[in-house]
Amino acid sequence: MATTNVSRHEKQNDSTTFEQFLCSSDLSGEVHDHLIFISALNAFLSISAFLGNTLILIALRKESSLHTPSKVLLGNLATTDLCVGLISEPLYVTLLVTILQEHWNICLYLLDPVFVSTTILCGVSLLTVTAISVDRILALLLRLKYRQVVTLKRINLVVTTCWVVSIVSSSMRFYSDPIITSRYTNIVVSLCLLTSIVCYAKIFVNLRHHQHQVQNQVQQLNQTNQLNIARYRKAVFSALWLQFTLVVCYLPQVIPLTLIIHSEPSSSVALVWSYTFTLVFLNSSLNPILYSWKIEEVRQAVKDTIRQLLCC
């Protein structure tokens, strides 16, 4: 969602927009070497995102020990990252190639598909990671009632809502005032980050309180409860890693967006935008690594899947 208003900022009568500048000969020739590197890097990231998330989806399909709603959320995030590698990154690489080869008309036609697809997929990723944080706090607060409240039907509704909100946000690019679009995007992003912060703060306060109870009542706490808390703590830290990685990859996009809105288009701004845009895509390649590293069940399923593929 960080890419929604890259070009449709407020402008004067004849001023050149960032999109027009990006797809024009005004772009400095010194930037071209960087664009070649960025193109090659994104081609690699596209392949790694596609293969990594395909492997994760196969592993999740085979894994039966994870709670089904949690699998749906992780599967939706992996599907989004898979689409980034399959759709957004190839479009972005093609866009960079048209700039390098100076096919300006094709470049202008590619801008909308690149920005719209990225806005939708990044938006779904952000909303899904936020939903995972809410899922973790509900598991802590509801305890035994968790499986009754967090059902597969409700999780599917949440996933559908994530896609609808992201599609609406991306479509505003075509018919809404840039200021309204910007405010809408900022509100959605701020609410997502605030929700995640509140959820994880509440979780850590409760876990800290539970740890004090354990120290005071060691005799009364049975082994099953200890095992459940340890398993829950692992799940929380796995979700927190996903949240942290997403913020680190998405947050730098604020820099070029701010420069685009408040300054004239320039080659240096275009270069910063290109690198931070690539950083957003990097998130889709990192998530499969985080799944395999932090979620034991997924890691084992991935190992089994790789063994089967090698045997075949």
Specify Rg, calculated over alpha carbons. 22 Å
The string of secondary-structure elements, in order, is: HHHHHHHHHHH
How many DSSP H or I helices?
Answer: 11
Helix/strand/pairing category: mainly alpha
Outline: globular
As residue ranges, the low-confidence spans are 4-15
Number of strands: 0
Let me know the average pLDDT: 83
**Sheet of most strands:** none
The level of helicity is over 70%
Strand content: under 5%
Through-space gap between termini: 40 Å
Describe the structure.
Helices cover 82% and strands 0% of the residues. With 312 residues, it is mostly helical. The protein is globular and about 60 Å long. The two termini are 40 Å apart.
Task: Write a concise keyword list for the protein shown above.
312 residues; mainly alpha
Briefly characterize the structure.
The protein is mainly alpha-helical. It is built from 11 helices and no strands. The chain is globular and about 60 Å long.
What is this structure's SSE topology?
Elements lengths: L17 H5 L8 H32 L5 H33 L3 H39 L3 H4 L2 H24 L2 H39 L6 H28 L3 H9 L4 H28 L1 H16 L1
Helix pairs in contact: 2-3, 2-10, 2-11, 3-4, 3-6, 3-10, 4-6, 4-7, 4-8, 7-8, 8-10, 9-10, 10-11
